[in-house]
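Board notes (copied after class):
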Amino acid sequence: MEPAGGGGGGRDRLSNLPDCLLHSVLSCLGSRQVVQSSLLSPRWRHLWRGVPCLDIDQREFPLDLPVPESPAWNAPEANRKAFRDTSQERAEREVQLWHRFEDFGDTLLPLHAAASSPPALPLDAYRLHVTGAHQHRCLYRWIRRGLARSPAALHVTNGDDDEYMYNEVPSFSLHSHHYKTDSLPLVLQVATRLRRLHLSGFSLPEEFSEELTADTCPVLEDLRLERCDFWFARIASLSLKSLAMEGCSSNCSYDGSTELALAVPRLVSLNLGDVQLPVVSEDEMPSLAVASVTATRDANAYAGGVDVLKSLRAARVLALRSFNSAELFDEEPKEFLKFQNLRTLTLTECKIGDECQVLRHVLHNVPNLERLVLDDCKVP
């Protein structure tokens, strides 16, 4: 793109587009790139402040130094010194990058909000991705400031898989008092506009499930939880249409809870993968169209299972992973698998019986089945 009036007679057609279209384009970029667009021309200087979607992403500040390879135990002292120097240089560079990212995160929202008259315009989406999981104070501050902008979609990712396993996991709450970590005034914000909530790498307290109700989140439709520890035993929402839980573990056993109950009658899509607690549904889900359930076992936990499957009879597409033939056939009456709406059934890593009893049972009791997929299934 050439600036208007630049040499070569080029035409800046992109800058001639209306603000609403340019804001839509910029919303697809990371906020660091969006801010950098202000250098293109005077026309773009303040354009970024009207973008309705903000994305604070630490991955936009990559560490450009490789991890040094540790020398062998009998390596010369010169090699050892080079390793120490390289490691120190990398550590110093990492600290510098974190400070740059912290400054960026601290200034982005205030500068963006200053472009509109108080109160600041609400956001369509606020996305926050922090890989330095130990920096909880900054993370809480940025979450609180994002909630103050009443986003319709909130995506917050904390750390990667290694950080989640070996570092303290921060807690998440929609109540702003949870994030009182500095001297800034508290924001008494109710998520009345929140339609989509995606969280990864958090500990979810017992009151989190209470925040999902109509009093706090009256229009919430999409909830996705990944790599989260949860302390509640029930998810209830009259507005929720999509629920996904991947790699989540429960701490409910401390209070005697033995299962996670779902009260989501309007659910259309359900995905339960590696949820370390049995999941049951309190009611049928008549609007359910797509469901995916993984039965996971370890030394102390059992997730999935036939209890939740009983409530999936309305599904048109069903994917099951790691179930055995007893769960799919022997332990329930034959009426269990009479799914009148089911068109596609996918069985992945399932045990289908020594004489393929599960397949025969499915073919006899699912009258409208059009597609059956077997992926890495086993017979005893």
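Comment from the instructor: The first strand starts at residue 53 and ends at 57. Residues 233-380 form one domain.
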